[in-house]
Amino acid sequence: MKEFTLITGASSGIGLEIARYMASKNHDVILVARRRTNLEKLQKEIKDRYQTDVKVYDRDLSNPAVAVELFNEIRNEGINVSMLVNNAGFGDYGEFKDLPMDRSLDMISVNISSLVALSRLFLEDAVTLNRGRILNVASILSFFPFPNYAVYAATKAFVLSFSESLRAELSETGISVSALCPGPTDTEFTTEEMLKSNSYKGFKQMDAAEVARQGVDGMMKGKDIIIPGLMNKIITQTPRFTPRSITRRVNKYMSGQKK
């Protein structure tokens, strides 16, 4: 039976590049995102270039019930998902009090609730087979609070903590759980406003294809936490040796807050 890798948020950015890279390694893929036109374009590109099997599902994961329906639909079609890449997510830049509440709640639903739902459903089959791989896309902001990204950073902190906890629970099985924690990456996520802020000063955005390559390679090797880029690795270690009060001050400056 064919084995597929399910990739959410596959229509652009890191998710798109993960799909390309997985296909280049002869893995059949299931692509999930909101924009069907983009999915079908990528589907054709991959099929023409790699001759791998590609299935597409246009779904909005801001409703966790949709994630449940999606996985059950895939399962009912007799499709075997052997690897899960939870990449779908988004973030808003700005002070929490100024951002629309609906956007913040949707962010929590996509970045956390749907990720948890898909992970739970994936494990129902993976535990029975005693094998499988999960790659959850977090962020370097998983490691510390960050003003102007309050909700986003908090959701990514959850993703990292959840991934590490789940990995420990499954340590005696053949299932691995990895967390990809990229820093600034050249994707649609990065806006001009973000680029002008202190948080991006001194940082060179990484190429999404390189981030995807390191993420997939790390997942296949069973790594726990994957942080692409030397500077990003260094930054994520600083909270271990710095008082939280100082970390907050530094992050406040980097976020552009002057008060």
Distance between the termini: 60 Å
Task: Give the integer mean of the pLDDT values.
Answer: 91
Strand arrangement in the largest pleated sheet: 3-2-1-4-5-6-7
Supply the number of helical segments.
Answer: 9
Portion in helices = 40-55%
Any low-confidence stretches, pLDDT <50, length ≥5? none
For this structure, what is the CATH class? Answer: Alpha Beta
Instruction: Tell how many strands the DSSP assignment holds.
Output: 7
Which term fits the overall shape? globular
Q: How large, in whole angstroms, is the Cα Rg?
A: 18 Å
CATH level-4 homologous superfamily: NAD(P)-binding Rossmann-like Domain
Number of domains: 1
Pfam family, one: adh_short
Family: Belongs to the short-chain dehydrogenases/reductases (SDR) family.
Organism: Fulvivirga sedimenti
Keywords: Oxidoreductase
Q: Could you please describe the fold and organization of this structure?
A:
- This is SDR family oxidoreductase.
- Keywords: Oxidoreductase.
- One of its GO terms (molecular function) is oxidoreductase activity.
- Belongs to the short-chain dehydrogenases/reductases (SDR) family.
- This protein is α/β, with parallel strands linked by helices.
- The chain is built from nine helices and seven strands.
- It has helices at 13-24, 36-50, 64-76, 101-129, 150-169, 192-196, 208-220, 230-241, 244-254, and strands at 3-8, 28-33, 54-58, 80-86, 132-137, 175-180, 225-226.
- Helix 2 (36-50) links the parallel strand 2 (28-33) and strand 3 (54-58).
- Helix 1 runs parallel beside helix 2 (36-50) and helix 1 (13-24) crosses helix 7 (208-220).
- The longest helix has 29 residues, at 101-129.
